Every structure is written in structure tokens, then in C-alpha cells.
Amino acid sequence: MKKIFALILLASAAYSVTAQETTTPTKTRVRFGVKAGVNSSSFNWKHEGLEVSGVQSFYAGGIAVFPVSKNFNIQSELIYSGEGAKVAGTKMELNYVRLPLLFQYQHISGLHVEAGLQPGFMITNKATNVETKEEMDTKDQLTKIGTTVAFGFGYRMKNGLGIDFRYAKGIDNPFGSADAKLVVASGGLSFIF
Description:
It is a single chain. Helices cover 10% and strands 61% of the residues. The chain is mainly beta. It has one domain: Beta Barrel (Porin). Strands 1, 2, 3, 4, 5, 6, 7, 8, 9, 10 and 11 form an 11-stranded antiparallel sheet that branches. Strand 7 and strand 8 form a beta hairpin.
């Protein structure tokens, strides 16, 4: 997993250096922006009799769009993402810094579709009993690095304002041995300068 993440970062850095060395028209230059919105997340946990439900949180961060051709972009992001679930009466809040790398097809109408990986580092986690409000220590029970596969779509106006929707499913397990994968549906606004 660390090798894949390092390769993604290296490819992004190499592409951004190449993109900065050439003078390109306005529509094909590297563009930056911001985004924010809401997350609805849960665990896809295959354990019979275990009650699992979703939690809502938010995400916010920055975007870099690297044009590859007229209709194709590589979009890299740095995002704070609140995720988690309610499991058997315990609310689990997992907060990540995610570094999505998405391949995006942009239609001339402003519609776009995207797919890629979202590696992330868990920066905080909290487990709270829903009834007693007692906090439990889960620090040693969860893995610190987690990656999701993401698929999304959206619409961007000519002024740079956009609306984005994304679905992400974990390819690894935050609990290590338990059969649980994060699933996150998100929607929000973005602005590309």
C-alpha cells in the first residue's frame, strides 16, 4: 500500500513539474481550487446480526487539475474528510487527510465523470457509546492508512463553480482483521480558479 501511495505521489509531482515548464493556453494550464461538502458514511460489514448505520460529517480541501487533453484531466486533491459509522450502539468517528488522484472526463457541456484512488491517513478517531456518551479507546484497534476506490460525476460552470458527487468504497480494512470496509457518499460544491 505504501509503495502504491508513493508511486501516485511521485507521478503527480512529476506531472506537475512538467506542466509548469511549458507555456500553455488558459484552458490547458494547471488550475487550482477549493471544495467542501457533506459525507454520509458507513461500514460495509459482513457480520450477521451486527447493527450498522451511517453517520454524517463534512469534507473540505484543495484541488489541482492537470489537463491531459481537451476532454481529459487528472485531478489531485488534498482533503480533510470526516467518516465513520454507528456499530452496535457505538458511534465511530474516523477523520482522514485524503489525497485523491482521479482521472476525469470533462464534456464540453460542463458535465464530468471521474474515477480513481483516494489514499488517506487517519489523523484522529473517536468511539462513543451512543447511550452513555462514554468514550472508548480505539487507538490501537484501527489502521492509520486507508485507501478507497472512488467514482463520481458533476457539473462545472464556465465561471469555475461546480457541484460534485462521489461514491467511495474502501479496498482495505480500518480494523485490520474484521471484515469491514468504509463506504462514503459525498456531495458538495467546488470552485476552480
